Write the structure tokens for this entry.
Amino acid sequence: MGAYKQFLTSDIIITPFEVNKSFTFQGAAALTASVVSIDRFLGLNTSSLFDPSTDPKTGQVSGSTQYQRLIYNSIKELFYSNYLSSSYGDPANVGFIVPGSNGTGNVLVGSTSSTGRYFNYKQTDLTFAKYFPTASDSTIGVISIPSRLFGNYIQPNSFLWKSSSFTITDDGEGNLISGSTIYGNIFYYHGLAVITSGLPTDILNFVTSSAVTCSFSSSLIIYETQYKCTIRENEFNATLNPSAEVSGSVFSYSGSYFYQPKGGVPTDNTTGSYFSPYVTTVGLYDEDQNLLAIGKLAQPLPKSATTDTTILINIDR
């Protein structure tokens, strides 16, 4: 049997904590054989909307129509639009309202051009340089890791891409490097690794190589909810177990055995001053008394009649 007590706001504490998991994929088949595949794309600054002769995932002739220019434009717009004329980023051009600057009232002063108004997802507060190719037929390579693998973000200093021609790692500040050479950028919160410089063969190898190793560590925020079940010294000092009543009997029904209480008179051993009920299980219920979770104690806990008893229940989600 059970007894109910309502939680107060102060009895519930929600605490976030971060967990990490590392992933390693070897070979092109491993990248696509996982539950959620890691995609590779080729972006091309072509004069036409699409290049019908190549596939953005392989860069090879396939006969399918693929929109490589859209990949190029999307990466440029989202992550590099403020770095096209300056590797350290152009100042933002925004207009300002100046109240009462002339007789007509408030006016907008300053440039309203959209150039330089994008966030571009900087990975650090340090002075940060990014390069993006803008010449005709420039190519970029993109690796897209699904959020189901990287969680909230990729752990800095954990990304590794190794192929037959070169090895690329991240420097923890958003740069993809091989030795001392910067080849591109990694956007930790988006799961994107972008190669923007190097020989065209390097970029194509980044997208098409089959002898590859890709590894990284994910980061996920898990919320732990702690429920503090406090039993006051003057609460729950009597048992509600029906077996503690006299004149009970055991009866069977369809092969199962049940205890049938009779009379509601407590047994002698439960009426003494030294009697203390034991707590074995804590159940969590909603406002409609639907059982949501059950917590089992490692061993029965005697209820104290002189001090408060507190049981902590932790649930991770």
Notes: The chain has a mean pLDDT of 79.
